[in-house]
Target: Small RNA 2'-O-methyltransferase
Amino acid sequence: MLLTISTTHSPATDLGYLLHKHPDRCQTFDLSFGQAQVFYSEATVDRCTAVLLLEIDPVRLVRGKSGFSLDQYVNDRPYVASSFLSVAIAQIFGSALSGRSHDRPDLVTRAIPLKATLSMVPCRQGQNFLHQLFEPLGYTVKTTQHSLDEQFSEWGESRYFSVELDAKIQLKQLLSHLYVLIPVLDEDKHYWVGEEEIEKLLQHGDGWLATHPEKVQITRQYLKRERTLTQAALAQLIVEETPNLDVAEDTHNQEEADIEKSVSLNQQRLEMVTSTLKQCAVKRVIDLGCGEGNLLRVLAKDNFFEQITGIDVSYRSLETAQKRLDQLLLGSKQRERIQLMQGALTYRDRRWDGYEGATLIEVIEHLDLPRLAALERVVFEFSRPKVAIVTTPNVEYNVKFIALANGTLRHKDHRFEWTRQELQTWANRVGQEFGYTVRFEGIGSNDPIVGSPTQMAVFEQSVL
Ligand code: SAH
Model:
């Protein structure tokens, strides 16, 4: 099994500093499952190629195992890219994988032209899957499928491919992509997967897995289709991406086949809020506690909305929101409708007056209960939008989250989570005090006993 990594970055021999392997030497490493050699097939200023040759010892693999199965002796392990290659990458290129280079620290964080070739990759799902895995990460992917036997073309194609990946990327990113995706492709269950595999997946998937379109499939196959582990990993992946664990709701307790099809709860929430604003003919919206701009982005793309303002106390979140809005590449007229302001929801601010609609999406539970009274006055007494929409977790639903220990809240910054009755009691009291009628709806799949994962209260100013 061969993995080659080439660069044309000048001077190309800097690859040796990044990999911590000198281009003039051939080194041998003893691993628990065989031997690895690292050498360079070319090392010039213009082009440098490092080769990792992995020789897996099938006898070592079965040593110590009880029972006999032919499969232990006749298998593809010595010839294909498998999780052994990931182990070798971690052991032999560990510093490069974690982005450390003593001699070229600045080069570690630079995207440089890199090409990786893998001599033999198993892929049962066919070559499209190889493209679906690597292309979203920015690679140009070339694959060559191998026939079962060159001498007997009538036997047809095998499930093995040679793969070439090209990208301008950091070396540590390339290595972490290979580290995670090679075991995903190799469906052999020769190793035990446990909790520590989740940690490795999250560690090496950091920064790219949470947003990968195939993240569910990647997670599932990396964890060898162990459902509980997959659910736990997906829940954690989503926590890293957004502050709300309940986004993972759809992936819980569902048949495997459904997992890919699910629309995230976050998405459903945003759609529900947007359609409610439209039903109420609200064209000027202030999103209070806008965070990183999830709702703002949806509203920004919809020309129905004429003015969109986001408020948050966190400057960092606003910076991210700004960046993500910029990525939408809106025309200047569309862009003018949107503004971001820093502010605290517990203090009156006249800049927030005059909006038709205010939204508080997964925000109230971040306030200490005694501060909630201040927010009530700011929103319902002073700003007085025609419509206000509040969403918050339904704590009754928490029992359905496998990844959530009994009695814990969905996010460490949540000060409280309410039952449906608690939200209704609060909202009805606020409505009465400030002259709003209130209706309630669930968002996400509706369980007959515990209800939906998210609850929504829609306040509309009562007509006098
Ligand atoms: N509405 C967003 C973010 C929810 S997280 C979404 O659905 O994605 C809660 C947000 O409320 C955080 O961004 C936090 O900074 C903000 N927040 C919490 N307390 C606040 C306060 N007192 N004033 C303003 N923003 C606050």
User: Anything to note?
Assistant: The longest helix spans residues 171-185. Residues 243, 289-291, 294, 312-314, 317, 344-346, 361-363, 366-367 surround S-adenosyl-L-homocysteine (CB under 6 Å). Confidence is low (pLDDT under 50) at residues 239-262. The chain has 18 helices and 14 strands.
